[in-house]
User: What shape does this take?
Amino acid sequence: MQKPPPTHPPLPSRLLRPLPFLPFLLLRLGRLILARPPPVLLNVVSSCCCVACSSPPWLPSPLFVSRCRSLTLDGPFLAPTLVARVVRKLSFRCQSSKLLLGAGCVAGKKAPLSSGGGNVRGAVSASKAVTEKPNSGSKSDKADLLVTKDEGLELYEDMVLGRSFEDMCAQMYYRGKMFGFVHLYNGQEAVSTGFIKLLKQTDFVTSTYRDHVHALSKGVPARQVMAELFGKSTGCCRGQGGSMHMFSAEHGLLGGFAFIGEGIPVAVGAAFTSKYKREVLKEEGDMPVSIAFFGDGTANNGQFFECLNMAQLWKLPVIFVVENNLWAIGMSHYRSTSDPEIWKKGPAFGMASAHVDGMDVLKVREVAKEAVERARRGDGPTLIECETYRFRGHSLADPDELRAPAEKAHYAARDPIVALKKYLLDNEIATEAELKSIEKKIDEVVEDAVEFADASPLPGRSQLLENVFADPKGFGIGPDGRYRCEDPGFTAGTAQV
Amino acid sequence: MLAAFGKNRALVSSLLRGGNGGDGASAAAVWAVSKRFMSASGDSITVREALNSAIDEEMTADSKVFVMGEEVGEYQGAYKVTKGLLQKFGPDRVLDTPITEAGFTGLGVGAAMYGLKPIVEFMTFNFAMQAIDHLINSAAKTNYMSGGTINVPIVFRGPNGAAAGVAAQHSQCFAAWYGQVPGLKVLVPYDAEDARGLMKAAIRDPDPVVFLENELLYGESFPVSKEVLDPSFTLPIGKAKIMREGSDLTIVTFSKMVGYALKAADELAKEGISVEVVNLRSIRPLDRETINASVRKTSRLLCLEEGWPQHGVCAEICASVVEESFYYLDAPVERICGADVPMPYAANLERLAVPQIDDVIRAARRICFRKQDKRKATA
Assistant: This one.
């Protein structure tokens, strides 16, 4: 009788698995030894970390790559002393190596990502899997939890707000109260909440046309967003922007762009200003960071690559967040992209990058924390690819015929709100009653927003010509020799322009 | 018609394969029947069908023609204009591109320089702004720069101008921008006949053609004659059409505004003002002959367009008429254009920002009865 083949490779060969990659590691070490004596020890430590964790070591930890670069001593932004920098790096590296080890130990059996084609999307994904309870069945140690109670409830509330708001938008659209193009965010709430809830009011966010929930997460009141969608004068842009163009100077929301890819240079520009204010104008305080949200289709656009280059070149405090929901209207990501792994495009520019499960708000939050802290410290940009999914079609006018029902079902089962709820309840961070009360509160908020928007007035006729210029003299001089804007009838719409 | 279908089954199948069977009249009748979307009552097709059939026939006739753009294949076209083409011609000739306007426009220009005939679709012409460098610098100027040795037989098509409630970045009219560039031909169809004839002419043309359609017209049905349905039907580029004869006032316009002008003309006819409506069909080359001949007949001009007033198409038409037909004018030339603001989102503001039929009627009255006080006529 034949012996059944061993199901696992015997122990020795597992240890030998890193063997083929030793030349790569030695090369890296050699380069660094020749170039920069101090970092050698640190790189050995982190390379061992890569080997120890389950992620394939031929994909060096992207954070590891970045650290090699940032340890160079050239560049315009030198820290005061080398020692201080090394100490800081060492402590940070120890922290993150714990993260990497954590990923290796807990997430041993990751569910393969089945969305068509079986592409490997393996890379470092941060920290504990939310959906896996500790096997012992006992309550988790408080120290192991990823969020405090307040944080957890805040995240839950924000995601439920995003979901309820978008569902209400769909209802209102079909009732004719909303018009034009409306793109809903259902299913992707974890990305918006995970990133934006770490930001301050002084930080910046840019987005695409799928921007309602980014606006809500950033703090724009639901009333104002709903009124804007209805085209009323009480909207955040006074009814002049609409669904795709949400702006809020007060909350640092720089748009809302209908053209994909357009928001990325704008976010980089805001980051440039942050750095300029700090370095040139010598302003005090935390450096505001910017986040650019965009999709997988945008990652093929020229502007994206241009911005990766500039941001990394000038070490700008910007975070590029790719909400990879696999579809650009009806174009599958795999049909339009030669290398579907978008996070890999960062290291090509020397940029730190990561890939994270975007259906899991806690994982997103962990990665986001690191990225935001990097940016605020002045260590430069990060590219983060979030694997996520939109439960609805591209827009409310999209028949959504091309996506396979199996794919939709797969991601529907990974609903981020359901996952967070489960985590909060299983780890006894919140009770069912508290979560229910949050849901009820959000329902009321959304209802109130609709009533407010309904009751708001349409923009007056005089608003048509307002705000074209910040300086209304831009309308020029009229036939009577005076500036047009001085004509009392000018914005009332009765004057001849 | 059913009898015709039965008798001409072979003809039908040859037509479905894309041939041109038999004599024109019966072929057209059978084609009309074989296409299920034809209305039973007469020959009437939508602009969308007109464009689809034109592209279909040209791709069948010449295998160098291919279509490229976002969502043109599997999604059947963002506005369903390229419906069925992927199934018929395959993915080698109907290419779904990534969202890379600058890249794929340049690619199309290069393909055209080397001998193919691309039809590049922009989801709207607003997105063509990301590619305008190639449209102008690579496509329009190459024949000149190369001394006539390299031409670019490419067609850029897509919806242009305002749709409904799509706000500032989706609603700009680019007729004036492209109309200014020497080396480009700019076509602006209105009805199904224009769409079919001009699209075929554009594809067969050896120069770069910018084909500005209108999203709101795609679904509108227009009656067409049998000649229009013939696969060899084309319209000459650079020739305007007199949609309606008149003697008191000439309204010159293009694209969706032609429909508004015709409706306004019907209203004005009740008041005794006989309006002649000229459908430009082509912005570059501009048919100054027809415009001026019409103005010399009626002695009054009203230009109408959806785009912004300064440096617009209407500005050029007015300049041309003042230069060439000054002594025939009985009243100053007038323009009605879109409001000089980025398109607002709010529904009421959007209505105010685009010319409406009432604006046309009021302006027409004002021109015809010039002695009246301007303010009174505006009321």
